[in-house]
Amino acid sequence: METKKDFIPKHRFDEVNEQLKAANKTITALQEDHRENDKLLQQANLYKETILNLEKALVNTRKEYALKEMLRGMGAVDVDYIIYRHGGVEAFSFDKEGRPMNVEPVIRQLRESFPYLFLCRYCGG
Fold it and tell me: Based on the structure, what is the number of domains in the chain?
C-alpha cells in the first residue's frame, strides 16, 4: 500500500473544517456588527446635526427675545412689526453674548418715520 504525501487524516480534516466554520461564523458576525455600527454612526451623526440645529435655534431665540426686551425698554409698542420693518432679527447687530448692539440709531429713524409704533414720552402714554 502506498501513502500519499498530501494525505490528511480524517480527524485532522474534521478539526480544521470546524475551525474554518467557526472562523466563517465570526466573520459573518463581525460583518453584521459592522453594519450595525454603520447604522449607529449614521444615527449618531443625525443626532449631532439635530443638536447643532437646536443650538442655532436657541441662539436665535435668545437674540430675538433680547432684542424685543430692548425695544420694549425703548418704548416700542409693536416690537414684532418693528423687527419686521427693519428686515428681521438678522438685520440687527449682536455682540458675542447675543445682546443687541447699535439699536438706538435704528429706533431713532423708525420713531421719526412711524411714531405710532412707540409710546409717547411727553403725553403720559
Answer: 1
Task: Return the number of other C-beta atoms located less than 10 Å from residue 122's C-beta.
Answer: 5
| Secondary structure (3-state) at 109 | helix
> What DSSP line would sit under 8-21, residue for residue?
--HHHHHHHHHHHH
Domain assignment present for 65: yes
Residue 98 near residue 68 (C-beta atoms within 8 A): no
For residue 37, is it within any domain?
yes
List, for residues 13-26, the tens digit of each pLDDT value: 788 888 888 888 88
Expressed as residue numbers, the domain containing 87 is: 10-117
CA 87, chain centre distance (Å): 25
Mean pLDDT of all residues in the chain? 86
C-alpha cell at 27: 466573520
Say if residues 100 and 94 touch (Cβ distance below 8 Å): yes
Give a yes or no: residue 20 inside a domain: yes
Is residue 121 very low, low, confident or very high in pLDDT (cuts 50, 70, 90)? low
